[in-house]
Amino acid sequence: MKAVSMILDKQRLKNQDLVLKVSPSVDPAKFDISKYEAFLDALCGDREYQKEATRETLRYLLGGRYNSLRDLAKENYRQNPVLQDLYPSLEDFYKHLQLPDKLSCTLDLATATGKSYVIYGIARIMLAEGAVNQVLVLCPSNTIETGLTEKFRSLSGDRTLKEVLPEPAIISNPRIINASQTIQRGDICIENIHATYERTKSSIEDSLIGKGERTLVINDEVHHMANPPARDQALKKWKEFLLDPKYNFKYIVGDSGTCYVGNDYFTDVIYRFSLRESIEERFVKTIDYVAEDVSHTREEKFQKIYDNHIQNKSLKYRLIKPLTILVTKDIAACKRLTEDLINFLADKENISRDKGEFQ
Predict the structure, then answer these.
(1) pLDDT, tens digit, for every residue of 291-308?
(2) Beta-sheet strands, E only, within 112-162
(3) Is the bond preceding residue 28 a cis peptide, omega within 30 degrees?
(4) What are the chain's domains?
(5) Is residue 42's pLDDT more than 70?
(6) Residues of 121-158 as b/e, b for ≥16 C-beta within 10 angstroms?
(7) C-alpha to C-alpha distance for 115 and 53, rounded to whole angstroms
(8) What is the pLDDT of residues 127-137, one digit of tens each?
(9) 238 with 219: CB under 8 angstroms?
């Protein structure tokens, strides 16, 4: 997942050229995704990209063709001339993979395309297949943890999803918990990454030591692991937790809408559905650009952006979730703007920086 240079021979690479292709050839005796089509239809509706992201991930994890990300990388390096031009050797490509010896991957799904449905589908099918006994979903903040927990509990309470799972399902109706409870067989535990280091408050260590090979780990908004802010030591240790031999995790899936380390694209993406595609296919509303800004100070600019967003949320687009996107010239400028905006939101709404970061 460590990144690759985005410029080769002065030509900008397309991110799609860097996506690792998972072979569609799967022995049905090992895994038959077709028997879950009714479940995927009920879960995803007409959002075919969600279904395909789920299928692609499960073929990779359960198809038996790959033992690790290293195997998938080797297959793609031999078939993809872009990768061959980018890296002088296969060994060099291996060096740019963050978790090469795990069955690890990342899904690049644009903001507002429903990543939670995809990771829920993956978790539910892995449990139904009996490939794992429990699922650990790690989030970068309490805010995201709360939102995911509500979504997963709602989906687990959907009788239709349970009824359309093919029989026999090894685990048909998982319990949704957080790490304040002991993680048991059949659980999906959703927790803030910080809890993995708070041993007095978290059951993760006691529950999962020695059980990593039978645990699916899902890293939500995984770009936070790749780009941890200097002030957050727990995010910096995220990768260390995944590699800790006392757990020996095998299956690791990440999701993000911003799959970059600095200016560079992740090297372990197996499926991509971009913002442009989501707009063209009308799953996300087209961008409505704001009028020319004549503000003189950053505070004044932020206030106008804030007022416009609140107006869209409360009046103009009450029945959908409006997004406000700020575009910068490069990653460095984006990071500076992000810090300034977080500070503005924290002061404006009288909330903590943690909550301001995920508003």
Answers:
(1) 556 667 878 888 888 887
(2) 134-139
(3) no
(4) 7-277 (3.40.50.300), 281-357 (no CATH)
(5) yes
(6) bbbbbbbbbebbbbbbbbbbbbbbbebbbebbeebbee
(7) 10
(8) 999 999 999 99
(9) yes
